[in-house]
């Protein structure tokens, strides 16, 4: 017998799951990505490098800037371009805006309704209006940073190889410094809320993240040493999904806020680090549902770090100078921490500046096997114990904890 | 008090941005909810209680049999259907990937079959009649707000009829095409984004699709040729969001 779950709600994109039951026992769970294929790597082949980050941004609206930055980093690596500290700080600021916007969306609008027993945040607002408003305030602030650095709330084109189209003004940076401090109180409240929830789902066996907090030159894991994705991560196609599945040394693994905290806690800002220490024991159990708590702690990190960056840039003064980009044949990988985990853009570029090879692996594709394992465990535990409505709801919550971005996951290619 | 209009958001295959942009309306979303009740919007709510919709917003391209079935469902059960965003109105970037679906699946997934019944991505407007088409990748959120408010008040929403250049001039931005020699599709692209890309000092990438009517793509082509861009580059640029063959 196969129990077919309806399409997931309150997640980004279109996906569903089916549970295979034999002799009254759950034998298998299949996570089906039913969103149509979008072929982004094919889209970029033969394209001039300069236009590629703008196109790749369209992979995902929630984390478009992560895609732009990963794409720009891959291209710059291929050309051997090194940018100034100012450009690096501004890129980081943009990624922080995206982290705030995305985590706030996930925690307040998608997950919180589960916590309080509502079908959505709009209906939840009748009783918990303050909380919804706080979430929207964080989200709006994140979006305003994203618009400032990216050029637009969604799919901006301001992030370019070698720098930016437009640089922020002193006044705009002062606003960021002021507002990030003012919002910190709300983020701390979110940490208290999500720390109070019981764990569910599967414990992750392996964690993977980039070697810097929001981007890096390589990947790290819970094992020793840094590595390129090609050395330890393998992808394979599935007949029932438009997303490929990835494994770390043959096993499911986890990318996202929880792996970032567990692998890189020493890089956190002071308050975020303190909150991490306070909840370390819980987080270290590795339950994927604690990803929600980890995201709440990252809200604190993001606000603190945004203030630090704005201050640093204001102290030094904005120069607004792009680094010249010289076209030559090359290969490069951009690693970025999208809000929901590691994002990889890998390119080979020919001597004319055109893309000859492109491989993009998104966080949801990396987490796909782990999501299935988590659903399987939860389904096994609950099947026969509760009625189907509760089972389905709990499975949806399990998927939601990964903060999946299904649109992103459907064009995962090895050419 | 009059009954609220039933509003549905249907997402076909896309980046999620056109649905997300509705949530980005913030307080204005709550203003809309004075007139509308959301009965279908799977990114934002677990409720799905509609069988008839006064207004349906459909985002994304038709890229699978699932999308096609959902689109027909939306069309058959709604009075006023809006194709929202460039995927729905023109196909956007994903429809510009060349080759047959079978060939593309083979290159990506290494499989000859098509078990998930994928289709070549096409805009919504190629499959069903729509009552209004609002392009943009993403569309301007204030524009969708205005359109929904107009409908709620019984006014037929206005279609824009000018290129991006008009908004660029109104904002007094420097012309990046003439002054910087950047490839800018502003002169031939449907306005309504408030010249977002030129605000960043960069060229318009044409994400709202070509303005119908009296634009002059041949002249734009000549300008870009004179600036030193080659045929392949220019044609790809023209084709990216709207599969436009000048």
Automatic annotation (TrEMBL), chain A:
GO molecular function, one term: nickel cation binding
Residues annotated as binding Ni(2+): 60, 63, 405
Pfam annotation, one family: NiFeSe_Hases
Residue ranges of the TM segments: none
Protein origin, superkingdom: Archaea
InterPro entries: Hydrogenase_lg_subunit (IPR053626), Ni-dep_hyd_lsu (IPR001501), Ni-dep_hyd_lsu_Ni_BS (IPR018194), NiFe-Hase_large (IPR029014)
Keywords: Iron, Magnesium, Metal-binding, Nickel, Oxidoreductase
Binding, Fe cation: 63, 408
Cofactor(s) demanded: Ni(2+); Fe cation
Binding positions for Mg(2+) per the UniProt entry: 41, 360, 411
Protein's name according to its UniProt entry: H-II alpha (Hydrogenase subunit alpha)
Organism of provenance: Thermococcus onnurineus (strain NA1)
Automatic annotation (TrEMBL), chain B:
Pfam family, one: Oxidored_q6
InterPro entries: Hydrogenase_assoc-protein, Hydrogenase_Small_Subunit-like, NADH_UbQ_OxRdtase-like_20kDa, NiFe_Hase_small_N_sf
Molecular function per GO: iron-sulfur cluster binding; oxidoreductase activity
Keywords: Oxidoreductase
Entry keyword ATP-binding: no
Top-rank taxon: Archaea
Alphabetized Gene3D superfamilies for the sequence: NADH:ubiquinone oxidoreductase-like, 20kDa subunit
PANTHER family the UniProt entry points to: COENZYME F420-REDUCING HYDROGENASE, GAMMA SUBUNIT (PTHR42845), CYTOSOLIC NIFE-HYDROGENASE, DELTA SUBUNIT (PTHR42845:SF3)
Protein name: Sulfhydrogenase II, delta chain
Organism encoding this protein: Thermococcus onnurineus (strain NA1)
